[in-house]
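ok so i was messing around last nite and threw this chain in just to see what happens. nothing serious, just curious
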Amino acid sequence: MHLFNFGINHRTAPVDIREQTAFAPETLETALADITGAGGAREATILSTCNRTEIYCSHEQANENSLINWFCDYHHLPAAQIEPYLYRNPGDEAVRHAFRVASGLDSMVLGEPQILGQMKEAFATAHKTGVTGKLLNQLFQHTFSVAKQVRTDTHIGASAVSVAYAAVRLAKQIFSELSEKTVLLIGAGETIELTAQHLSQQQVGHIIVSNRTVERAQKLSEVVGGEAITLAELPTRLHEADIIISSTASQLPILGKGAVERALKKRRHRPIFMVDLAVPRDIESEVGELNDVFLYTVDDLQNVVEDNLQSRREAAKEAESIIDLQVCQFVDWLKSLDAVPMIRALRESADQLRQRELEKAHRLLASGENAEVVIETLARSLTNKYTHCPTAALQKAGREADKAVIEAARRLFDLKV
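result:
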């Protein structure tokens, strides 16, 4: 069985390509069923976030190209358009990639912790769908263990740096004082929750949380002492916001140029700072053309997060050492799988032999044979039959001067000769 990982991320593809290849949460189960059917994967897990879309899978033969063709066909995109942005990680490289991703070493913000939760959720979805097996189950459990060790044994997460933190920090650079500002958060997922926490710590004036499900918005707004509204209320409340930060799973933009233009008129063109953390984007790119609007996407934040990363870079070196060791351990386990069918066959053969000889012994006892004689006969028969095939193979190896077989026997049977 082969292990294979492929995909795109913020390092290999711009946001418009990532938008086109993202999997909406409600389509994941269908996509997983499809790739393990039409796509040819035996097991599969799809990880789709703002910064990456990648697939981990196992297959019987080296059919990576068919899996990539499935990926392109699923998104109705020509392979030639996507190929330049794809990375491929077969075997050991896929293991290392999974460990690095979960540990935050492959994130836009080095060491950010959110990706681990996203990987756990992706695996849970695949497991629930029934498309994971022995290989991916072991890979992801080992991956989560490695990520935990990295966070425990290094300072990779010591400083508060994340995309959400970067957005808040950028807001502070544009508006030096946040205590009199109103922030509108669109969405109620993990990224927005983290953003709300950072904003609360900065003692922002007022927080409005808008979400398709108002109950989730209310839950978050209560934590940060804010206000909850529905997405339908956005047009009438947009002008109140000095800062707008959006991160939803919508496949279509939430805010268009017209809505923002109307809000600016009501604000008498007081500036609005906007951060779109979603993929696909929540805010139409044309909004950035408006005067008095400062619009940033997730890609724009890369320059913002450089500060306070030096300690994480040092910690990353330690993390890489941990990962090197753990990759070796996982690969050793992976290689051991090749011997499993042989071990099973050996045990089954030995058990069948034991059962046959035991039945003979029972018959002899039932016919009145002396127990000591029966036990002696059983032991001698088992010994002869267990050693017959190895002895014959060794005799043949001796005649042919096959030292490899002789050495293998020495190791297999732990012989001190």
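not much to say yet. The radius of gyration is 30 Å.
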